[in-house]
Amino acid sequence: MTAKALHRSHIPLRETDMRSDRVQSLNDPQSPQRSSSEQATGLRVNDLTVTFGRGRKAFNVIESLSFEVTAGETLGLVGESGSGKSMTAAALMGLLPWGGRSSGSVQLGDTEITRLSNAALRAARGREIGMIFQNPLSSLNPSLTVAQQIAEPYRLYCGATAPAARSHARQLLQEVGVPDAERRLDDYPHQFSGGMRQRVMIAMALACSPRLLIADEPTTALDVINQAQILRLIQRLQKEHGMAVIFITHDLSLVAEYAQKVMVLYAGKTVEQGPAEDFFCSPRHPYSQALLHAIPRLVNMEERLSDIDGLPPRPQEFPVGCRFAPRCPAMTPECLTAYPAQQGGAHHFYCIHPVGAVS
Ligand SMILES: Nc1ncnc2c1ncn2[C@@H]1O[C@H](COP(=O)(O)OP(=O)(O)OP(=O)(O)O)[C@@H](O)[C@H]1O
Ligand SMILES: [Mg+2]
Questions:
Q1: Where is the composition biased (Basic and acidic residues) (predicted)?
Q2: Considering 259, 282, 315, which residue would you say is the last residue of a domain?
Q3: For residue 52, which atom of ligand 1 is closest to its CA?
Q4: Which of 161, 302, 349, 358 allows an S-S link to 284, with CB 3.0 to 4.6 Å?
Q5: Closest to 42 measured CA to CA, from 276, 205, 211
Q6: Is 96 helix (H, G, I), strand (E, B) or coil?
């Protein structure tokens, strides 16, 4: 995501905006209210597309994505750099960079997010959808203490008094493993180490017990010990709060450990999707297979890692056929004529020469 997008992404957490949100959301008939039936359901996304530019210069950066994440479930969203993972998160949050527009349906519980007014959408972001951004330092507001950044959404969107919100912020910091939470409440983001900032981001994202948590590369900047601690923490909180989680990562080994479902993006399109077990036991798309072969296997040091030669196309140059074809060992001329149709059901893929097919 661009610096501008990241800047915009934390605008709703700024104090001034939140005050106006509160006034608007309380009066807004579209402001999402949670019913008990909604709490039991997760996220349903249908045909989500994000477009930049106009007329002949228009291009899609993600195209026709459809997926579901039920309450308590984790979807691992994987793909190379630039495949559209963060753009998908931005579209779900209604926080696209300037010039971007989305189409398709994003349903959280019974609420169609794409039809909400701006004020109701900001309230939904404060209350229903938590986001751990790819870069915590640029997503936390440097001029506000962590108490202000965690307690304010809780006070504004969950109706708590200021002392109750502060006490909630302290409990959350304790819960995410920030030592000496009472004292650290009044510190600013730059006073925290990278690992602790990640924890503060998680506390912020969880302040209102959101129904959906989007974790965009939540641990890339961390050492392996911190990484495991943070991911286990998210997993534990997910169980306790019954959240649907979208876990965005380059790292398929983390997906194998933490996700029940996998969606692989390549150049803005889904190439394969399904239950994690099916995916890892029998990947069907050659791109998925190449990604899996690139995972280091400590148990077999003899096995060589395979690189995927070449680069993905730029969004302005997406071809009509399979976008992976130029890099694919199984490519034939047919691959270049049209985007492959979906094959399979719960575990599905888009390829006319799938891995494991009898020829
Ligand atoms: N403001 C923008 N305007 C137009 N295109 C953009 C903009 N921001 C990003 N893109 C393009 O959208 C595509 C998807 O980007 P995105 O940030 O979602 O990738 P990603 O999968 O999250 O990559 P990474 O793993 O590096 O974080 C890329 O081709 C990128 O160049
Ligand atoms: Mg990204």
A1: 12-22
A2: 259
A3: 4
A4: 349
A5: 211
A6: coil
Ligand 2: centre distance to CA 81 (Å):
7
Confidence tier at 294 by pLDDT (50, 70, 90): confident
Name which of 281, 284, 254, 290 is nearest 271 in CA terms.
284
pLDDT at 307: 66
Ligand number, closest to the Cα atom of 61: 1
Ligand 1 centre to CA of 49 (Å) is 13
pLDDT tens, residue by residue, 72-106: 999 999 999 999 999 999 999 999 999 999 999 99
Instruction: Please report the pLDDT score of residue 358 as a whole number.
Output: 63
Q: Which atom of ligand 1 is nearest to the CA of 134?
A: 27
DSSP 154-194: HHHHH---HHHHHHHHHHHHHHTT-SSHHHHTT--GGGS-H
Same domain for 208 and 317, yes or no, is: no
Residues 72 and 180 in one domain: yes
Residue bearing the CA closest to ligand 1, atom 30 = 82
238 lies in the same domain as 330: no
Are 271 and 255 within one domain?
A: no
Q: Is the CB of 1 under 6 A from ligand 1?
A: yes
Domain that holds residue 211: 3-259
Residue 354 lies in a domain: no
Q: Does residue 339 have a pLDDT over 80?
A: yes
Chain mean position to CA 183:
31
Question: Which atom of ligand 1 has the smallest separation from the CA of 79?
Answer: 21
Ligand 1 atom closest to 5 (CA): 1
Residue type, position 5, single letter: A
Q: Are residues 204 and 88 in the same domain?
A: yes
Which ligand is nearest to the Cα of residue 7, counting in written order? 1
